[in-house]
C-alpha cells in the first residue's frame, strides 16, 4: 500500500488483514517504488494524491520497472470521483479504482478479482513455458533420425543449402560424401532386421565420431546410406575424411559372413564430390548427384573403397 494519510492506511490495512492479506506500507511515492522493488508484492494499493510523486506517476514508473511478461495488479485508492480521474488511472497502468472511504466489502471483492486474474496469469505463464519446452524438443526431434539419433534427411537438406550458399559467398570449396553399407541386404537376410538396425546404429555412431570439425555434419540419408557435409574442405581433405570413415567402419569388425571374401566384416563404400560453387549457381543437388555417381563407381570397383568425381579411387 502506498498511502500518505495514516488514518486511511490504518483502516485499509485492518480490512486487508481480515481477509488474510498482510500489507506493507510506504508513505510516499518514492518509498513506494523502492518497496515495490524490494517486496515484489502480489497487489499494489495506490493513493493518487500524495506529496512528491502522485499516484499516476508512481503507477507509470512501476509499469516501466516491470520486465516483459511481468504484471503486478494496481488498484488506485482515491477520494476523487471524476470520470477523467478514473480514465487516467487506467491509462497510466492501473487495473482498478476504489473510492475512499473504502467499503470493506468492495475492497474484499476487488482484491479477490485481482487474485483470480493473477492466478490465471500465473497458470498461463507456466503453460506457455511448458509449450516452449515441448516446441523446442519437437524441433530437435524433427531434425533427428528415429533409429540412429543422428541428423535426418531434413536437417541434411537444410544444412546443405545453408553451406552451399555460404560457400558461394565466400568462394570456398564444399565437399560431400555419400557412404553406403556394402551388401547390407544380405546382412539383413542373414542376421535379421533387428541386428541390421543395431548395425546401422553402430555405423552412424562411428561415422559421427570420425568427424572433428563443428561445422561437419553426418546425416542418415536413406535406409543404409549416410551423407556427410564438409564445409570449407577441398577434395584432398574430403578424401582423408572418407578414408578415415571407411577404415573406422571396417575397424568395428561387425561380422558379415556374406561380405566380400577379403573382409568378413561390415564395410562401407563412399563417393566423394567437391565443388567451389560459382556465384549464382543455386542448384546444390549437383553435389549430391556427383557424390552419388562416385559412390556407384566405388561399388562397381569392388566395394569397401572410395571414389571421387575427379580423382581416381583410393584403396
Ligand atoms: P550394395 O553393397 O550394392 O550397397 O548392396 P546392398 O545390399 O547394401 O544394397 P541394396 O540397396 O540392395 O539393399 C539395401 C538394404 O538395406 C535393403 C534393406 O533390407 C536394408 N535396409 C534399408 N534400411 C534399413 C533399416 O532401416 N534397417 C534395416 N535393418 N535394414 C535396412
Ligand atoms: Mg548398400
UniProtKB/TrEMBL annotation:
Domain Response regulatory residues, every copy: 1-115
InterPro entries: CheY-like_superfamily (IPR011006), Diguanylate_Cyclase (IPR050469), GGDEF_dom (IPR000160), Nucleotide_cyclase (IPR029787), Rev_trsase/Diguanyl_cyclase (IPR043128), Sig_transdc_resp-reg_receiver (IPR001789)
Enzyme class: transferase
SUPFAM superfamilies listed in its UniProt record: CheY-like, Nucleotide cyclase
Molecular function per GO: diguanylate cyclase activity
CDD domains assigned to the protein according to its UniProt record, in alphabetical order: GGDEF, REC_OmpR
One Gene Ontology term from the biological process aspect of the record: negative regulation of bacterial-type flagellum-dependent cell motility
Catalytic reaction list: 2 GTP = 3',3'-c-di-GMP + 2 diphosphate
SMART domains per the UniProt record, alphabetical: GGDEF, REC
The keyword Cytoplasm appears for this protein: no
Domain of life: Bacteria
PROSITE patterns noted in UniProt: GGDEF, RESPONSE_REGULATORY
Pfam family for this entry, one: GGDEF
Parts forming coiled coils: 117-144
GGDEF domain residues: 172-311
4-aspartylphosphate modification, residue list: 47
Gene Ontology terms: cellular component: plasma membrane
Keyword list, A-Z: Coiled coil, Phosphoprotein
Enzyme Commission code: 2.7.7.65
Protein name: diguanylate cyclase
Amino acid at each position: 500500500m502506498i498511502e500518505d494519510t495514516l488514518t486511511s492506511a490504518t483502516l485499509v490495512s485492518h480490512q486487508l488483514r481480515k481477509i488474510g492479506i498482510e500489507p506493507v506500507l510506504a508513505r510516499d511515492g518514492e518509498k513506494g517504488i523502492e518497496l515495490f522493488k524490494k517486496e515484489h508484492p502480489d497487489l499494489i494499493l495506490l493513493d493518487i494524491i500524495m506529496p512528491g510523486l502522485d499516484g499516476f506517476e508512481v503507477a507509470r514508473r512501476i509499469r516501466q520497472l516491470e520486465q516483459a511478461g511481468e504484471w503486478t495488479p494496481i488498484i488506485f485508492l482515491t477520494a476523487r470521483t471524476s470520470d477523467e480521474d478514473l480514465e487516467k488511472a487506467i491509462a497510466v497502468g492501473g487495473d482498478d479504482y476504489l473510492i475512499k472511504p473504502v467499503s470493506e466489502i468492495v475492497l474484499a471483492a476487488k482484491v479477490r478479482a485481482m487474485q483470480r486474474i493473477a492466478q490465471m496469469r500465473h497458470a498461463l505463464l507456466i503453460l506457455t513455458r511448458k509449450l516452449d519446452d515441448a516446441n523446442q524438443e519437437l524441433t530437435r526431434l524433427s531434425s533427428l533420425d528415429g533409429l540412429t539419433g543422428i541428423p535426418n534427411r531434413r536437417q541434411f537438406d537444410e544444412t546443405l543449402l545453408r553451406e552451399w550458399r555460404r560457400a558461394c559467398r565466400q568462394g570456398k570449396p564444399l565437399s560431400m560424401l555419400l557412404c553406403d553399407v556394402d551388401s547390407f541386404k544380405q546382412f539383413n537376410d542373414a542376421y535379421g532386421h533387428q541386428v541390421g538396425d543395431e548395425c546401422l546404429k553402430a555405423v552412424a555412431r562411428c561415422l559421427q565420431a570420425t568427424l572433428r570439425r563443428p561445422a561437419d555434419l553426418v546425416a542418415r540419408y536413406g535406409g543404409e546410406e549416410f551423407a556427410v557435409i564438409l564445409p570449407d574442405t577441398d577434395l584432398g581433405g574430403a578424401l582423408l575424411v572418407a578414408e578415415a570413415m571407411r577404415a573406422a567402419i571396417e575397424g568395428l569388425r561387425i561380422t558379415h559372413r556374406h561380405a566380400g571374401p577379403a573382409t568378413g566384416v561390415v564395410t562401407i563404400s563412399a563417393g566423394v564430390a567437391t565443388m567451389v560453387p560459382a556465384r549464382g549457381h543455386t542448384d546444390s543437388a549437383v553435389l549430391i548427384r556427383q557424390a552419388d555417381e562416385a559412390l556407384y563407381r566405388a561399388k562397381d570397383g569392388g566395394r569397401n573403397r572410395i571414389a571421387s568425381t575427379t580423382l581416381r579411387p583410393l584403396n
